[in-house]
Design goal:
Elements: E1 2-3, E2 6-9, H1 12-19, E3 29-33, H2 34-37, E4 44-50, E5 53-67, E6 70-74, E7 78-82, E8 87-103, H3 105-108, H4 116-119, E9 131-133, H5 136-153, H6 160-183, H7 191-205, H8 219-226, H9 230-241, H10 245-263, H11 268-274, H12 280-291, H13 295-299
Parallel strand pairs: 2-4
Antiparallel strand pairs: 1-2, 3-8, 4-8, 5-6, 5-7, 5-8, 7-9
Amino acid sequence: MKIDGIHTLSTIQEYFNFINYKGAIFKEFSIARLEETAKVIPQKMPPYRKRFFKIMLILNGEIDMHNNENENHLSNNTLFFSGSGHIQSWESISPLSGFVIYFTSDFYSVVHKKNKLHSDFPFFTSNAAMSIAIAQDESKHLQRTFENIILLSKQDLPNKEDIFRSYLNILLLESKNLYEQKLGTTAVLQDSDKRILNNYNQLIEEQYGTDNEEVFKSVQEFAEALSIHPTHLNYVVKSLTGNTALQLIHNRKLQEAKSLLFQTSKTVSEIAYDLHFDNPTHFVRFVKKKTGKTPLQLRNT
């Protein structure tokens, strides 16, 4: 279905139908070789929002990938990550080889908590770097794990999904190590405050890619949904991120605006109403205040 002019794909099967790929899905988990998907997927993919997670190991080839407002040229020995709710599009430069895994938070949460995907694995957050270049030996090490999952997918075992989850967790943990080695790490947060921040970020994310007319706009509304006092929510967010609770709302709104400006041809007025601004003028002022540029100036940079 289309929401805000962008295809919203709620399940892996919907995504496979959209790209005309007939891959096996094991209870909200799927793995494929990029060489196989490249036979059917479009060379140029229109923007879409997905409700599942994606990890891709590119061994060879090139692709220009858009993820939210970010654009990266991906090539040999690259790990790519995309979280649930992200807007993606791409243009293939040369055929890819490697692996891609798709999974949902429900699949992961059978053994692990859902919010661990965002709290423990920073590459799935909406503003994180979406890819890292890795060394040849690191690539080969990860390749062996992907190959093991491929072999498992062809076997008829009663506990296959549980083994998939174990392999998936190994990939996530090893990817996290590589991600932090390449890009740096952050301090360990207190569990209770971390959970509040996590739930707050997740609730903010849920306001996008929906056809609901009513969305949360104020810190007060978010705090009520989280059953905490707005002052405490602001204190937690400020202490852990350096931003106020309202700034996180605005940062995500700006990111969504950039995604729509960069990845679609929608007018400024259409984007303003998609993002629930009262009128386009308020949207233009918001973007200008945050970036120093008008929406059209941003689109043309």
